[in-house]
Amino acid sequence: SEERGGLVAAGLVFAATIGAIVWMSSQPDSILRDPSKTGIDSYRPLFDSLVGLLMVAFILPGLAYGWWTRQIRNDRDAAKMMNQTMSAMGSYVVMAFFAAQFIEWFKKSNLGLVLALEGAAALKSIHLTGIPLMIGFVALTALINLLISSASAKWAMLAPIFVPLFMQLGKSPEAVQAFYRVGDSVTNIITPLNIYFPILLAVVHRYVPSAGMGTLIAAMIPYSIAFFAFWSAMVALWVGFGWPLGPGAPLEYRP
pTM score, two decimals? Predict the structure, then answer.
């Protein structure tokens, strides 16, 4: 009953926090609006404050839950919980050291670069068009993501090849980047080269102390496959209907 009450209290505080943020950005002269700008540009103070606002939106409901369930009665209790959370990062620091050595040696070998460029050349050489080419591009990006974790590095390699190719097929550079982000995201949870992988493993150790990299990857593979299937279908649907990607970001390219 205490936990249920804590969830209600946390939900009410969260709703009040979101309401306060909406109120502070609802009018042109509000705190989180720039009265000298119009349209979306007037919300620049809100966008610049998102990190702090998200922190507040998580901390306040958490404090409300802890207060209602009597787990947090004063500032010392909150500090103790923070210390317990940070203590779990010790294993991450050790793992990150050795992971960094592996990533650096892998980068020096240029294996990821070679496979990325060869894969792009192969995909281009089989003369796919339309939706099959886009799904192939998503699959290629997902495969490369297992070897090169940096999103900007992968984009720097693939963009000079696929942006002109898709433009010749009538697809905008914005569309290419959108498809790239789909492939880049589906395998993040199963590649040890992801810089956040050790953090995820440290969190898993809190609940399953015997879990290792293999256990985590095996548990995440079904999710990765589901993400790839669902988001690839969404790409095909989006392309099939020819919907724009957003304001000022058309799907089609017309010179």
Answer: 0.55
